[in-house]
C-alpha cells in the first residue's frame, strides 16, 4: 500500500497542527483515565438520548468548530494583510479558505442552531422530548463524525482546496488530484444525512407534540422559525445528497457528470450546489429571526408586533428561497430571460424580510427596553443586517452583478448577512438561554465587553472589503502586488480580525468566569420570560415538565404570570422516558470509518464498514426497548429540590 | 374472507395501473406526434402516481394529519418540479445563444 | 404505552402515529431526491458523446417484466396490509413474502440489464448520458434492495412476535416505502424508457 497519499507535506504550520492534535488527543485520553471519567462520559453523554444533552453537545462541537474556522479566518487575513506576504503558499491558502467556508456554514452555524433548537424547542412547545429521541442521537453522531472526518483531512491526506462551493472542473480528479475533495463529498454527505434526519424529527415534534391548547398560531416565534427551517432542510438537503453523490462518483468511479469531455457538464454542479445552497442560507438565517423575535419581545416587555405577518413572511421566504439559486452564477452563460427571472425573484425576497425588520422596530417602539447582552446583539443586528440586505439587492441586479461577481464586494456582502444573521443570533441565543440549561447567567459586564469588541471589530474587518471589491480585488486571491493599492484597506481589515478574535476570547473567558463565580439562580426565570421554557426549573429535569402545561394564549408563561392563569392544572403522575443507547454512537463511528475508507478508495475495508452500517441498522430495528417510568414520588421530590424547597 | 383479503377498490386500482402501463406503450408502437406522446406519458404517469398515493398508500385515511400530509407532498412536488424545470430553463430553454 | 383501540393497530399509540407521519415527511424528502436525479438525467439525455443513445440501448421486453413485477408487488404489499388489519397473520406473511420475491426478481432483471449494457460497452464512464442513467436506475435499485433487506427483517419480527402495535407499525411504514418505489418506477418507466424509445 502506498502510504505516501496519507501524508501531508509542507510547512512547519502543518506539522505544528499535527503535533498539537496528537497532544490534545493524548491529553484528553489521559485526563479521562486519570479522573476515571470514562464511565461518566459513556453513560451521561455518548449514549444519551436526552434532547437537552444532545443540544449541549451540538453547541460544544459548534464552539470547537468556531475556533477552527476562526483560526482559518485569521490566517487568511494575515496572509492578505500586506502585499506579497509569505505566510501561506497558494495551496495552503486555498485549503484554508475552503475549510473556513465549509466549517463556518456547515459545522459551526448549522450545529449551533440545531443545538439551540434541540435544547429549546421541546421546552417551548411543552413537550417531554422530541418525537424520536434515538434518531436525534443518530443525527448528532452522524453530524459529529462528518465534522471530524473533514477536520482530519488537514493532517491526513490534505484538505479540500477548490472553495466551499467546489466548482467543477476545478474540483475534478484531473485538477484536484489529492484526496481533499473526496473528504468534501463524504464528510458533507455523512453530516448531511444527520441534518436531514434532524429535519424530519423536528417537523414531527413541532406538528404533533405540542402541549394541549397550543395551536399553530399560538406557537412562539422561535418555534415557528424552526418549523419552517426544518421544512427547508427536508426539501433542500436531498439535492445536496445527490450532488455530493455524483461528485463522489466522478472522483472515485470515473463517471462523466461534471467532466469537460464525454458529454459531462461542469456547470451542472454549480447549478445543483446552489439549488441546495441558497435555501441553506435561509436555513441558517430563519432560526436567527426566531431568536431575535423572542429576545426583542422579552426585553421590550411587549408582545411581538405583527405575529401573523411574521409567520407569513417566513413561509413566503421559504418558498422564494427555492426560486433564486441562479443569482449565484449570473455570469455563467444563461440567457437574458433566465437572469431576469432570477433577478426578480431575488429582489422579491427583500419584501418579506423588510416586513420582519419593521415588525421588530414596531415591537421596540414604546417598549420598556432593558439593554442586556442578548438584547445588544439583537439591536446591533438590525442595522448591520440591513447593510447586508441592501448590498444583496445590489448584487441581485444581474447586469450590475457582472461588475461585482466574485469580488471582495460579494465577500463583504455575505459576511454582513451571515454574521449578524446567524453568528450574532446564536451568540445572543446562547446568552439568553444559557441560564435555562445551566442554572446561572453569564456575566453581563464581560458579555458587554465582548459585544463591543465584536461589533466594532466586525465592521472594521468587513466594511473595507466592500471598497476593496469595488477597487477590483477578487475573492480567493492569496496575494497581490504593492501597485494594486489593496494594501492599506487589507491591513485595516486584519486589524479588525484581531479585534474580533479578542472579542471571542472574552466571550469564552466569560463562560469560564461565570461558571466559577456567577451566583446560582433559583428562580428559573432570570429574564422575566414569556414562553414555556421559563416555566420549568433550571437546570431542566430530564422529563422537562412534571405536568404537561395547558396553553390558552400566545406567550403562555407571560399570561400565566400577568393574569394568574394556571399553566399546570393536572396532577403529577408517573412519566415515561426513553432509555439511553450506545447504538447511535457506534453507528456514527462506523460511518466515520466508511467515509474514511472511501476517501482513500480502500474498497475492502469500505465494504466491511458498509456491512457494519447495515448490521447496526438491523440491530436498531430489532431492538425492543420500551423505555422506563419515573415514579410520581420521584418527580415530586425532584421538583421540590429544583425549586429550592427542602424535601 | 376472500372479500376481506382482496378488497375490490384495491383490485381495481391494480388493474387500472396495469391498463395504464399498457396504454402508455402507444408512444412506441403508435404513430402519434411528439407532443401527443409526451401528453400521453404525462397523463398515464400522473394517474398512476395518484392511484398509488390515494388507493394504495391511503394518504387521506388519518384524520389528524391529513392536511399536513397533503402540504408535505405539495411542498415536495414544488421543490422537485422547480428543480427540474428551473434547471432545464437555465440550461436548455433559456441558454444564451 | 396508551393504546387507542379505536384506531388501526399501526396508528394505535402516539409513538406509532408519529412514526407514520415522520415517514411521510421522509418520503417528502425522497421526492426532491429523485427529482434531482431526473433533473440530471434530463440535462444529460442527449449528451452521449461516443457512447450509445437510449434508443440504441433500451429493450422493452425486460422493462415490461420489471414494470409488471413492481406493480404487482405494490399490489400484494397493499393486500398484506389489508390482511394485517383483519388480523390474518398467515395471509399477511404470505403476501409480504410474495412482495419481497418479486422485488428480488426485479433486482435480478435490473442487474442483468446492467451487465448487458456493460457488455455492449456502455458503462458508467462512457458518457454523461450513461452516468446519469446508471445512477438514476441504480439509486432506485438500491432502494429496492434496501427494501428487500428491511422487509425481510420485518417478516422475521412478525413471525416471532405476531401482529402487535410495534410490528404492525413497521409493516405499514414498509408498505408506504414500497408503494413509493413503485411511483418512482412509473416515472422511470415513462420518462426514461418509453421516452427514450419513442
**Percent of residues of chain A in beta strands?**
under 5%
Number of helices of chain C: 6
Beta fraction of the residues of chain C?
under 5%
For the largest sheet of chain A, list the strands in their spatial order: 1-2
Assembly form of the protein: heterotrimer
Amino-to-carboxy terminus distance of chain A: 66 Å
Tell me the Rg of chain C in angstroms: 19 Å
Q: Poorly predicted ranges of chain C (pLDDT <50, ≥5 residues)?
A: none
Quick one: overall form of chain A?
globular
Output the structural class of chain C.
mainly alpha
**H-E order of chain C:** HHHHHH
Shape of chain C: elongated
How many DSSP H or I helices of chain A? 19
Largest sheet of chain C: none
Outline the fold blueprint.
The complex is a heterotrimer of chains A (647), B (97) and C (198).
Chain A: H1 12-34, H2 38-46, H3 51-79, H4 90-124, H5 133-152, H6 180-208, H7 221-253, H8 266-300, H9 307-320, H10 336-364, H11 373-396, H12 398-404, H13 408-438, H14 444-471, H15 487-517, H16 556-563, E1 575-577, H17 583-599, H18 603-622, E2 628-630, H19 632-642
Antiparallel strand pairs in A: 1-2
Helix pairs in contact in A: 3-4, 3-5, 3-15, 4-6, 4-8, 4-13, 5-6, 5-17, 6-7, 6-17, 7-8, 7-9, 8-10, 8-11, 8-13, 9-10, 10-11, 11-13, 11-14, 13-14, 14-15, 17-18
Chain B: H1 2-5, H2 8-24, H3 26-29, H4 34-56, H5 66-93
Helix pairs in contact in B: 2-4
Chain C: H1 14-44, H2 54-57, H3 60-85, H4 89-119, H5 128-161, H6 165-197
